[in-house]
Amino acid sequence: MNKKYAPFHPAVTGLLHGGDYNPDQWLSYPEIIEEDYRLMKLANCNTFTLNVFGWSAVEPEEGRYEFGWLDKIMDDLAARGLQVILATPSGARPAWMSAKYPEVLRVESNRQRNLHGIRHNHCPTSPVYRKKTRELNTKLAERYKDHPALILWHISNEFGGACHCELCQDAFRAWLKQKYGTLEKLNHAWWTGFWSHTFTDWGQIESPAPHGENQVHGHNLDWQRFVTDQTIDFYRNEIAPLREITPNIPATTNFMGNYPHMGPFTGLNYAKFGKEVDVVSWDAYPAWHSDLQQNMDLAADTAFVHDIYRSLKGGQPFLVMENTPSLVNWHQVNKPKRPGMHALSAVQSLAHGADSVLYFQWRKGRGASEKFHGAVVDHSGHEHTRVFREVAEVGKILEQLGEIRGTSVEPEVALIYDWENGWAMDDAQALKPREKNYIATCQAHYKSFWKRGIPVDVIDMDRDFSSYKLIVAPMLYMVRPGVAERLEQFVQQGGTLVVTYWSGIVNENDLTFLGGFPGPLRSLLGVWAEEIDTLYDSDRNSIRFFSEELGFGGTYEAREYCEVIHAETAKVLAKYERDYYANTPALTVNTFGQGKAYYMASRNEDRFNDDFYEQLAEHLNIRRALDTGLPEGVSVHLRSDGEHDYVFIMNFTDGSKQVELPQGSYYNLLDQQQQGSILKLSAYGFAVLKKDTDALK
Ligand code: GLA
Ligand code: ZN
Known about the structure:
Bound molecules: alpha-D-galactopyranose, zinc ion
Number of helices: 17
Largest sheet: 11 strands, mixed
Mean pLDDT: 97
Shape: globular
Structural class: alpha/beta
Distance between the termini: 16 Å
Number of strands: 29
CATH topology of the domain at 413-619: Rossmann fold
């Protein structure tokens, strides 16, 4: 059920606009800081993130704290009605600390300890680093607990990577002992009989290394799990004093994306981490206008990532903690967003459930590596720039859309994307080893829904399935205990499931299922997958329908992967046309209880996914954000509070488009007038329409 979520902090009344503000770099330029305040208002900003990398400014010497500057900035912002997201600065540390306590420095997988420098390179296990972080966080919490500007804690920055020091090695061994109890169990789970790798003492176990062990899949997988757990443990250590001293101030940490192929960050299992934060937030940097893909394709891939992060907490809104108002400094080509694209991409994040548009960064620094990274305020220092004007415009839009804060997205379709599944699959030396393209495959399936304006949750395999009508599980290679049973129950009770090739292959330890793939999914899907054919780029196969059951038919191209399967209890809908497996099943459906489970044995052209999911969505009567034909490149999404639907219509092309609205009465929130039945969208144009929900009619 759609509802309106309470704000994460009572002082939050609308959508957040602002972002990372680093006055700590400008303390010797007080006139610039004064000017910032004037510009913040002009840019229609309301929220700033402070102290992300402020450690050496707040604790210039061990135990000597300098909060004066931060007090002043917080007070000044509060006096101007601006709110603060306050960061704990553990993302980078002062030189005095690295010099005195080298154990805080990260050791790389080659076992070399880093020198002091850059950032995001601490040891998460180091008792010293944990203690120092905790001490500083305690001071911050005590000092600002009643500060009127404070609305949210921003813990550290973009947690990621791993440390391989001796402290971390010991922690890894302890983690393994806790998990397996005995070496015998570990040896079995890791299949260490292979290449004579059997361990006879816990002390023999080390983290994976380029010059050491890296071919034992269960070992790699457990290391990645440990890294997630250890990062979470570090995060818990950071928030402990905050929880105690400021129980009413929620906490988040900014999650990341993956680039250049726009996807979720894969280094940490965010499905797990997401449970630890009060509000999910992430840093979104899609490379618009690139020659890698068209904007509309990138829009679909970006929407997928927004949906992953939203889905971490069901329908609860998330935050875009960082995005650039113009360009970044680390893409392959650092191209500014074209006029209009900033507003469009901002509105896209709102459409998918974000309650903020926050920037990295407010003002360009004068020196060091990010001085040419986009910012609201450029080196010119005034408001008369294209970027500033576009930011101010976005601020106005956010004000006009304030009532969407807290509204939710409640899809009837879920797509399973699972971090551990991706780790295991990436490690498998099979198929085209480096081109299994798990995420891109999830996105290809997702896109068929995106094109039709069907909202989708993107969830991991441990989530509750019961609220969905349709679940799509591309390449469900790993099936953890209980998942097959829960999928069976879902279908049994009337749900529809779609599973593809290369599913049900390994268990939670990356050991293959014995007795026939897709392992524990075999009876649900009613097929046995005997072998898989990997195609060269120039190879082609095709699949042809000979059943009209789905309401469409014809021939479609199959590329890259064709699994050779046997229909056991499933009915065959399409067959391969070529090669030694010509005339064997390529698409099947198995009736299971009240529901149906489809198996796609091959990777098919996009046209197939579009036609297949269109028919399925029709049959299942799946809710679309707008029940109308959409021109190519126009995307529609929906938020609702249960009483009003907010329909976002976005044109990701550089030509004008028009959309015919289905019957109903729509109020255009940005034009502030009743919307006629034809909605015209200019290049990169968008509209947000409000209407009563159907439920109220
Ligand atoms: C990340 C970091 C920021 C900044 C930006 C630049 O998201 O969190 O500190 O470096 O990248 O795009
Ligand atoms: Zn370490």
